[in-house]
């Protein structure tokens, strides 16, 4: 059965219908509940697709139904749902409210399509469907200067990255004569070395790198995360960022299976990705240490995590070039996909907690976190658990994915990546524990309790439960990530 | 499978939740509940110790290889990647398990007098800490081991940072940064061990002796740094004076007594056990590190103006003995040094534990632990004064305390490796010198007119005296630890010469 089509229809209907519903029943926030329902239906459909092995033929081969798509679709839709739920408490009121949920669901629809894209054109359309609404969402607090700045910066760099991706696609089409990704791969396998393809691969890395927030394409990230409404920043960190990764896997890593960037030289895709990974994690962690506000700290931490995820891609590319270390590549890709799931959950928890602090205390600087454990115990606990998980401390989920990623390179020529990542992990604990120290050891300005709304507490409980649960019993999630990773090896 | 070890491991972790809730409702009920949990834990630990002791000649029949009471379940299994829940106990871990259980009871009794702030969270964290430490000693799978290894730090961070002295936040952060960096570097070694064999595995019994000698060196170094920070050894020790002096006394007891033993245990079980040939090659360097740590600890302790910092550096010197003795055996092939090191870890838990607990009692009774401000303890607070003298004799490694046997064995083991090791005999002499000098100044001096203080309650004094009993038993019946340790050491020596 074509579960994905049902999900697409549900999301499309909600996105188009929300403004209308909202106009009719403004007082009941009907649009919000319709969006939540549609996202819920979409998640159930994707889960059914994963469980019962649905197919998709309605789009003429533009979409492919596989475990990789299921994994990403589940991640991005779940996080969109969490954002939609908490937006009830914090979305800016006013005449534009109907379009807020519409934009959110459109973006979710774009990410869903992107996860299953099997064709470069489909991928680009989905990419834009995902990106364009988020430019508007970033500037949704239109009276706030930072929000405007965030939207402007994000839109300009986003448009640039889209242009780069489109250019890379046109080069690919010029060489391969098709936009079907499997067709491109088959064609390139028989082609002699062509520098145009290498240029296209690098341009893809750059274009997707903007969304993945890889250094040096990360400039927009801290400003956009800080300036956007906090719920939208959560969406950026946990959902649209992941969409960048699925695009990179679908295009760059697929091509990497058959094509070397530059034969017989040090300038290989594996080395490019490895160097990007180290720069990304190092700069992210160093910059995070010096931040004064929570959202910027989370933004840089998010950049650093992208570096760890790239390590799995690097060992995959290395294994494909040399034909060696296929077990390592398998471990690395499983770890990267697993880390993408974990990062969405943990970063989602941290961002939503930071958002609640901003909403309730009206400030987002780190000073607001002093003594938070006494004022907002659930929020503080959520931040502490998610930070420990981001740092890779057992018994939490982040430990397993980092273990898989790090162990995958330890006995290969890329072992220096593991050393760099280990040192980075140790370093990152510095700022994670700095916040935990503020919350639990320092005295706050006041010890008066602050209200923690029920909706937030429920979302926190689910996310913290997932972080600890996956940490103790990782088997099902690792198996899912493993199944998704297996599809990449052809 | 016999679930004894899993109960031993998870009982305190699971009990920490009801303990927290009960303590929030009623202090008395909560404390009795917590105390009964740690007592049950102690009974289990005694059983495990007894089981290993009675069976150490024929352990091969009762468990996996040299390990007894093993339990194995599949935890994660995806493709060729597998992690199993594998626990077991042998002559190396059983004394440490017993020491942990005993010392936790000791710390609990002391906490009743010394801790008055946020008690529910405090006791819950102590229980969590005990379970995590048990996990470290009982795990025979590297991932499980690392799981508990890191878990130990989390309660310790809060125990130092919330209940510690004036500079507690600084001490807690420094502790955290050092220990976590060390454990991350350790993780490199564990991962390299995993990838070093085919088929890949994290199980210690399947890894021992299988890793090719050529790829042992860097992992050995990484693991030595990781364990060396925890022990600690010179020059990785700089977190120690802050953490040991700022932690509340019962927590300092656990830090110095059992947390440092984690490092020594890891060195023997993992550094030497998994990378034996490289350990043999580099044994002289690690022996040097051990001997420098001994002299450094004892030397700095001479200059200490405060009881707690003196005890902290004395504890550091004790850890030097552990490293020195272990690697002396690897270098020489005589089992005496490592046997002494294992005994040293066991008795150090009680010598360091009693010193730090007494420092806590003195702090609360006299309001200071500054040596120059204390005088005439003998007449002002006679019970504390007397116990301090006995605890110091224990730390000086004089008969009738078991620390004497341990240090003699380590030094003799060192002499088997190289005659120059005889200089190590100066370390107990230095420790004896500054301890006696401190006793002269603080205990035996005439009390000044202003001197006043509350003496230890007679019950606490009696409980405290009980903790010197294992030390005296170890003087005369050191075979209780040395016997089960012998096959473990011989097994390691087989791996070294393999």
Structural class of chain B: mainly alpha
Mean pLDDT of chain B: 88
Largest interface: A-B, 37 and 36 residues
Order of helices and strands of chain A: HHHHHHHHHHHHHHHHHHH
* Beta-strand share of residues of chain A: under 5%
Q: First CA to last CA of chain A: what distance?
A: 25 Å
- Helix content class of chain A: over 70%
Number of helices of chain B: 22
Name the helix and strand elements of chain B from N-terminus to C-terminus, one letter apiece. HHHEEHHHHHHHHHHHHHHHHHHH
Poorly predicted runs of chain B: 59-64
How many beta-strand runs of chain B? 2
Outline type of chain A: globular
What share of residues are in beta strands of chain B? Answer: under 5%
Instruction: Please state the structural category of chain A.
Output: mainly alpha
Number of helical elements of chain A: 19
Shape of chain B: globular
Characterize the biggest β-sheet of chain B: 2 strands, antiparallel
Q: Tell me about the biggest sheet of chain A?
A: none
Mean pLDDT across all amino acids of chain A: 89
Determine the N-to-C terminus distance of chain B. Answer: 32 Å
Task: Give a structural overview.
Chain A has 490 residues and is mainly α. Chain A has helices at residues 3-24, 30-52, 67-90, 97-116, 120-138, 145-176, 181-190, 195-212, 220-227, 230-256, 269-289, 294-322, 326-361, 372-375, 377-390, 397-409, 415-440, 454-472, 475-486. The relative contact order of chain A is 0.09. Chain B has one domain (4-497). Helix content of chain B is 74%, strand content 4%. In chain B, a hairpin with a 2-residue loop joins strand 1 and strand 2 (81-89). In chain B, helix 4 runs antiparallel to helix 5, helix 8 (168-195) packs across helix 11 and helix 14 (307-332) runs antiparallel to helix 15 (336-366).
């Amino acid at each position: 059965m074509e579960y994905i089509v049902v999900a697409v229809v549900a999301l499309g209907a909600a996105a188009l219908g929300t403004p209308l519903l909202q106009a009719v029943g403004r007082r009941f926030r009907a649009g919000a509940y319709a969006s939540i329902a549609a996202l819920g239906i979409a998640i159930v459909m994707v889960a059914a697709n994963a469980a019962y092995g649905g197919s998709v033929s309605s789009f003429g081969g533009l979409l492919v139904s596989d475990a990789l798509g299921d994994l990403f679709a589940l991640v991005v839709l779940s996080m969109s749902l969490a954002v939609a739920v908490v937006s009830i408490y914090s979305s800016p009121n006013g005449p534009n409210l109907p379009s807020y949920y519409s934009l959110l669901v459109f973006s979710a629809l774009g990410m869903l399509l992107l996860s299953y894209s099997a064709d470069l054109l489909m991928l680009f359309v989905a990419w834009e469907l995902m990106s364009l609404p988020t430019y508007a969402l970033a500037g949704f607090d239109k009276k706030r200067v930072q929000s405007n700045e965030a939207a402007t910066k994000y839109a300009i760099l986003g448009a640039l990255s889209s242009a780069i991706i489109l250019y890379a696609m046109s080069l690919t089409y010029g060489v391969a004569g098709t936009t079907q990704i499997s067709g491109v791969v088959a064609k390139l396998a028989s082609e002699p070395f062509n520098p145009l393809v290498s240029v296209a691969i690098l341009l893809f890395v750059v274009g997707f790198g903007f969304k993945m927030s890889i250094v040096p394409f990360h400039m927009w990230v801290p400003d956009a995360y800080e300036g956007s409404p906090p719920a939208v920043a959560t969406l950026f960190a946990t959902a649209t960022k992941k969409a960048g990764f699925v695009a990179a896997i679908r295009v760059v890593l697929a091509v990497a299976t058959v094509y070397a960037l530059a034969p017989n030289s040090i300038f290989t895709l594996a080395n490019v990705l490895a160097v990007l990974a180290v720069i990304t994690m190092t700069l992210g962690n160093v910059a995070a240490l010096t931040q004064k506000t929570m959202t910027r700290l989370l933004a840089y931490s998010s950049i650093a995590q992208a570096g760890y995820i790239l390590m799995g891609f690097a060992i995959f590319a290395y294994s494909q070039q040399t034909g060696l270390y296929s077990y390592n590549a398998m471990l690395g890709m499983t770890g990267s996909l697993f880390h993408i799931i974990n990062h969405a959950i943990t970063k989602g928890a941290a961002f939503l907690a930071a958002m609640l602090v901003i909403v309730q205390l009206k400030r987002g600087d780190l000073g607001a976190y002093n003594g938070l454990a006494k004022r907002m115990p659930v929020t503080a606990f959520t931040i502490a658990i998610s930070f420990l998980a981001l740092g890779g401390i057992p018994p939490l989920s982040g430990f397993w994915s980092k273990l898989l990623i790090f162990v995958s390179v330890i006995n290969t020529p890329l072992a220096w990546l593991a050393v760099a990542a280990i040192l980075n992990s140790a370093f990152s604990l510095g700022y994670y524990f700095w916040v935990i120290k503020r919350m639990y050891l320092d005295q706050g300005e006041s010890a008066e309790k602050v209200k923690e709304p029920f909706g937030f507490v429920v979302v926190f409980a689910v996310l913290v439960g997932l972080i600890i649960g996956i940490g103790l019993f990782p088997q099902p999630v690792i198996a899912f990530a493993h199944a998704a990773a297996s599809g990449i090896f052809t | 499978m016999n679930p004894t070890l899993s109960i031993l491991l998870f009982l305190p972790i699971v009990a920490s939740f009801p303990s927290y809730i009960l303590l929030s409702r009623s202090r008395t009920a909560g404390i009795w509940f917590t105390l009964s949990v740690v007592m049950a834990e102690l009974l289990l630990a005694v059983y495990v110790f007894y089981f290993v002791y009675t069976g150490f000649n024929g352990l091969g029949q009762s468990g996996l290889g040299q390990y007894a009471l093993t339990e194995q379940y599949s935890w994660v299994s995806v493709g060729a990647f597998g992690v199993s829940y594998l626990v077991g106990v042998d002559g190396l871990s059983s004394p440490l398990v017993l020491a942990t259980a005993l010392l936790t009871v000791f710390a609990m009794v002391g906490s009743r007098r010394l801790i008055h702030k946020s008690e529910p969270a405090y006791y819950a964290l102590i229980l969590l800490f005990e379970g995590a430490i048990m996990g470290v000693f009982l795990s025979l799978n590297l991932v499980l081991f690392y799981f508990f290894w890191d878990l130990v730090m989390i309660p310790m961070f809060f125990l130092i940072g919330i209940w510690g002295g004036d500079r507690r936040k600084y001490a807690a952060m420094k502790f955290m940064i050092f220990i976590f960096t060390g454990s991350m570097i350790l993780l490199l070694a564990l991962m390299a061990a995993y990838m070093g064999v085919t088929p890949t595995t994290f199980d210690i019994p399947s890894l021992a002796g299988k890793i090719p000698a050529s790829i042992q060196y860097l992992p050995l170094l990484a693991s030595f740094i990781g364990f060396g920070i925890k022990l600690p050894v010179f020059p990785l020790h700089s977190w120690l004076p802050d953490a040991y002096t700022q932690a509340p006394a019962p927590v300092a007891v656990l830090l110095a007594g059992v947390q440092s033993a984690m490092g020594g245990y890891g060195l023997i079980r993992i550094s030497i056990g998994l990378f034996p040939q490289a350990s043999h090659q580099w044994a002289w360097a690690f022996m040097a590190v051990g001997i420098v740590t001994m002299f450094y600890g004892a030397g700095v302790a001479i200059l200490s103006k405060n009881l707690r910092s003196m005890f902290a550096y004395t504890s550091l010197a004790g850890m030097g003995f552990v490293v020195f003795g272990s690697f002396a055996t690897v270098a020489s092939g005589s089992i005496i040094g490592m046997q002494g090191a294992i005994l040293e870890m066991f008795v150090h838990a009680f010598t360091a534990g009693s010193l730090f607990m007494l420092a806590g009692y003195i702090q609360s009774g006299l309001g200071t632990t500054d040596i120059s401000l204390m005088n005439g303890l003998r007449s002002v607070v006679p019970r504390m004064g007397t116990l301090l003298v006995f605890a110091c004799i224990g730390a000086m490694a004089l008969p009738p305390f078991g620390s004497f046997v341990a240090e003699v064995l380590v030094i003799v083991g060192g002499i088997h490796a190289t005659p120059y090791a005889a200089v190590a005999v100066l370390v107990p002499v230095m420790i004896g010198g500054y301890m006696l000098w401190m006793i002269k100044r603080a205990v035996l001096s005439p009390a000044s007119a202003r001197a006043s203080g509350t003496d230890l309650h007679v019950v606490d004094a009696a409980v405290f005296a009980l903790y010197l009993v294992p030390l005296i038993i170890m003087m005369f019946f050191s075979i209780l630890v040395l016997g089960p340790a012998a096959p473990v050491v011989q097994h390691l020596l087989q791996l070294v010469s393999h």
